[in-house]
Amino acid sequence: MTAVLDPAATGTRRTLARPAAAGIGAGLVLLACVAAGVWAFASLKINVPTLVDSAGNAADFASRMVPLDFPPLGELLGLVWQTLAIVLCATALSVVLSVPLALLAARNTTPSAPVRMASRTVVVLARAVPDVVFAIAAFRIFGLGGMTGVIALGLHSVGMVGKLYADAVEEIDEGPRNALRAAGAGRLQQITGAVLPQVLPSLVATALHRLDINLRVSVVLGFVGVGGLGYALSTAIGRIDYQRAMALALVVLLLCFAAESVSGAIRRNLLHQEEPRGRRRFGGRSTRALPAAATTPAEPTSVSVAAVPSEPRANSRRISHRWDARRVRRCVLLVLGLALLVASAVRSDVSPAALGRGLDSLFPTIGDFLPPSGGGIWATLFADLWVTLQIAFAGTLIGLVLALPLGTLAARNVVRSPAVARTFRTVILLVRGIPELILAIVFVVVTGLGAVAGSLALGIGSVGLLGKLVADSLEEIDSGPARAVLAAGATRRQVFFAAILPRAWPAVLAHLLYQLDVNIRSATLLGIVGAGGIGYDLLNAARVLQFDVVTTVVLLILAVVLLVEGVAMWLRKVFA
Amino acid sequence: MTEAGETVVRLEGLTKRFGEGDTSILALDDVSFEVRRGEIVALLGLSGSGKSTLLQHIDGLQTATSGGGTVLGTDLAAAGPAELRRLRRRIGFVFQQFHLVGRLTVLENVCQGALGSLRGPRLGLFTYPKAVRERALEGLERVGLADWAFQRADTLSGGQQQRVAVARALMQEPGLLLADEPVASLDPESSGQVMRLLKDIGQQRGLTVLCSLHQVDLALSWADRIVGLRAGRVVLDVPTHGLGRDDIMRLYTDLEEEVVLPASDAVDADAAGAKASDGDEAPTGVSLEEAGRR
């Protein structure tokens, strides 16, 4: 071994890594993305004069929306219940459809590749077709009412729920299943015995998460004929009755907050129960924290296991679980949940007859949407698609500019004061709770119909998710390197740039690209309420029954989203 | 009914090769031996010497490249998937990592051992027949854990979980009990309990027990007979009576048969095969260890 360095060689050695072609390309693409955002920002005339102009509008708007005009309490509660019923049924429908699809899509439960592909395709299609389109189609069949919402939200949700369920199934510990296989259990027995019990908590958590999302979306779908709060809101806006509209928007906001805190509490409770899950590979009795001592019988102190009487005493023992308080509570909650679901189904007019009607007119309705056609307005469509893209880029840029400092200040390992971090966390959480639709309506009213409203709504809306993701990715990185740099005498700022940012950056980038993807879809959706872009064409085409144009719009958006996803995948790979 | 002394396992030239061509790994190389009813046999060897692969072949979980044998009267080479499944129902298998479903109760985990003899899928303790639940509780009594029947399985310690796994295997009323490094992840005290349990149950029921181990001293005091594997080949097959520790240690240190395969290929083969056991306290022979890895 030659440990001596050649002094002559050190002079000619590279001290910087040779730049890689992929790295340069990816950097250029990123720069282009930022440039696109800035340019969109400028060309949409989101600037100080516009905002100053809007200030006058805002004052005007404020005077027009007070006093808030709430509907009578009975009517209001009726609307809330109608919305909740639709959302509950839709989520239940998505779960019922997603479980078999996920089992057929997961590598470990379905060995046949073609079957897996088919199942994955169904899930991807459900996600690719926007819920608005499902709603437009369902409205053709079921008309104004609950079923339209249940079918539209339920089918579109399969795209997310089915994918997450399939991931959960693929992530299970294969050990128990192999043990059952080794004991001669059949495939179905292995699935119910070892797969379902392991994924059950994540099934419930995912369903609750989707419930929150569906609640928000159901309000948007009110604009295309899904009953409930959203429909009342859309008619109020149609009448330019801002007092009623803002009152309803406030109710929606509060309902979303309430739903999120309830489902959040349930999910946390669920995760808390899952805590002792970690498999103890080296676990001896000495290292183990005993569960609540009162309920835990002491293990026989005698080490000699063989001394345990082999005389069967089973006849005198109970062979089913005792009805203790926890079990009773669990069962009561389960029964209440099921009762709520049945009541929702009744309220949303879910019935075998309705489903039969739906199946009957399924193919004629699909026929209405095919083949896609431009309807003679190709130029308009492309121009508006362009505007939608601008809105998405500008919105993401606004979100990023606001979320980076907010998210950094909310990360506990960056900010010294826990109180500051907590405060910014709360701000982010509150922003996150506001549905984008409400933001869009407010901005539409303040800045007038058009792209500026959409960009601002998306920007503010993105702050919630992006800020949280930035804070989480900063907090998730392991503290070892930061401590090492700190130990070497670095300042806090040096630690942040040397040991925290470089490691959090790929995750932040991934989240940013994801947000761009989400924003393109959202920009389409917000167009429906008048926030500019191609969404407005979508709504118009549906109104004049040009369903082939609806399909065209969907395909255009899909192509753009796929393109962005492809670029995002490549960028993630380069910067991983 | 089987007679005492009857052959339970007969292996003839069992050979298993993972992968194709130059990069393939010979995991089992012409393995032949017999195990008689009631015998308590320890399988020794380095990590990757083929112990787990051998046990999985005996349980019909893998199929041999060539050769074969008869287990509980079933011809391994000739049997189809359905027949292998019927064979597996009669063989208990205890894993190193216990493989319990952590969220389910201890009793339900034990009941799952009876799935092979039940029809249809089961989810929830109440879906198992009462007789099965009673038998499961007897099994838990046998391993000294009846008081823990309604706890979640993941609240138990490692040693307790392994005893639950033994009770689960007993639900099959097996004619043969296989154990793959059952105490490799347990502390010495729990190890002692589990090994004693396996031996006592074997002796009481006249059950054949075949158990892979890597603690030489434990194998010497526990088994009637030791089969030593190295690089997939049987290099030792002796009764433990009168055997000393040094006779066995040759299995680990004597490197007269050099087997060298590129390590990178061994990784692929590792993925192809079953889970390799980690944390072996093999004294020497890195190349040997890498080479034999499934």
TrEMBL record, chain A:
It holds the Pfam family BPD_transp_1. It comes from Streptomyces brasiliensis. Keywords: Cell membrane, Membrane, Transmembrane, Transmembrane helix, Transport. One of its GO terms (cellular component) is plasma membrane. GO terms for molecular function: ABC-type phosphonate transporter activity. Residues 277-296 are annotated as: Disordered. It is a multi-pass membrane protein. It is found in: Cell membrane. Residues 80-263, 385-568 form the ABC transmembrane type-1 domain. Belongs to the binding-protein-dependent transport system permease family. The chain crosses the membrane at residues 20-42, 79-106, 213-233, 327-346, 391-415, 427-446, 520-539, 551-571. This is Phosphate-import permease protein PhnE.
From TrEMBL, chain B:
SUPFAM superfamilies: P-loop containing nucleoside triphosphate hydrolases. It comes from the Bacteria. Keywords: ATP-binding, Cell membrane, Membrane, Nucleotide-binding, Translocase, Transport. CDD domains: ABC_PhnC_transporter. GO terms for molecular function: ABC-type phosphonate transporter activity; ATP binding; ATP hydrolysis activity. One of its GO terms (cellular component) is membrane. It holds the Pfam family ABC_tran. Residues 270-294 are annotated as: Disordered. InterPro entries: AAA+_ATPase (IPR003593), ABC_transporter-like_ATP-bd (IPR003439), ABC_transporter-like_CS (IPR017871), ABC_transpr_PhnC (IPR012693), MetN_ABC_transporter-like (IPR050086), P-loop_NTPase (IPR027417). Transmembrane segments: none annotated. Residues 9-256 form the ABC transporter domain. This is Phosphate-import ATP-binding protein PhnC. It comes from Streptomyces brasiliensis. The lineage of its organism: Bacteria, Bacillati, Actinomycetota, Actinomycetes, Kitasatosporales.
